[in-house]
Amino acid sequence: DAKTTQPNSMESNEEEPVHLPCNHSTISGTDYIHWYRQLPSQGPEYVIHGLTSNVNNRMASLAIAEDRKSSTLILHRATLRDAAVYYCILGQGAQKLVFGQGTRLTINP
Amino acid sequence: GAGVSQSPRYKVAKRGQDVALRCDPISGHVSLFWYQQALGQGPEFLTYFQNEAQLDKSGLPSDRFFAERPEGSVSTLKIQRTQQEDSAVYLCASSADYSNQPQHFGDGTRLSIL
């Protein structure tokens, strides 16, 4: 399974943008980049995914480096409800998700 | 619409007892996954179904763990002769088809073995 590297924790302020980095230097050409987040006492929640081009949805944006060896999840205006553990995961098709430790995001009021 | 539903939400059992955990996936979802999440860790894959077929059970930690999905919808994860190290949150997820569709997770069953 291709491996991702994320910072253990990050902190930001409410109503400010947040950029969550992920390194995946061994990504294969057919691996998609998936982001999930997990709020306390809940199951993981899908955030966004992409292959090569940058992606936007109502929750976030995903910026993918041209060489695809890294990506950044962007929360445009953080709220207290965005405090969670964010997981960056590589995968293809209907595959199992291989979760790492993720990044614990703290949002300060 | 209804999401993935898991029951019970909490389960306490004595060591050696058998337990059964239920997952109701989103209606029509072909793929169903079970994960185990220990305290402070990310979820770890247990097993995967495509309709009623169990295509991957490589993550099941021992032969005490058994999963089924007989009619391709509801799934049950059974743990026999439970041990303390089985204490964890058991998560179920479903997805719509065979391609890169997101997995939708339930809130899990927290299992505590005394």
Count of helical stretches of chain B: 0
Instruction: Characterize the quaternary organization of these chains.
Output: heterodimer
Q: Alpha-carbon distance between the termini of chain A? A: 38 Å
Q: Report the C-alpha radius of gyration of chain A, rounded.
A: 13 Å
**Gross geometry of chain B:** globular
Q: Strand order, main sheet of chain A: write it out.
A: 1-9-8-3-4
Strand runs of chain A, count: 9
Would you write up a description of this structure?
The complex is a heterodimer of chains A (109) and B (114). Chain A has 109 residues and is mainly β. Helix content of chain A is 0%, strand content 46%. Chain A has no helices and 9 strands. In chain A, the strands form 2 sheets. Chain A has a 5-stranded mixed β-sheet with strand order 1-9-8-3-4, with no helix packed on it. A 4-stranded antiparallel β-sheet of chain A has the order 2-7-6-5, with no helix packed on it. The radius of gyration of chain A is 13 Å and the shape is globular. Chain B has no helices and 11 strands. In chain B, strands 2, 4, 5, 6, 9, 10 and 11 form a 7-stranded mixed β-sheet that branches. Chain B has a 4-stranded antiparallel β-sheet with strand order 1-3-8-7, with no helix packed on it. In chain B, strand 7 and strand 8 form a beta hairpin. Chain B starts with a strand and ends with a strand. Chains A and B meet through strand 3, strand 4 and strand 8 of A and strand 4, strand 5, strand 9 and strand 10 of B.
SSE blueprint and pairings:
The complex is a heterodimer of chains A (109) and B (114).
Chain A: E1 9-13, E2 18-23, E3 32-38, E4 45-50, E5 55-56, E6 61-64, E7 70-75, E8 84-91, E9 103-108
Chain B: E1 5-7, E2 10-13, E3 19-24, E4 31-37, E5 44-50, E6 53-56, E7 65-68, E8 75-79, E9 88-95, E10 104-105, E11 109-113
Parallel strand pairs in B: 2-11
Antiparallel strand pairs in B: 1-3, 3-8, 4-5, 4-9, 5-6, 7-8, 9-10, 9-11
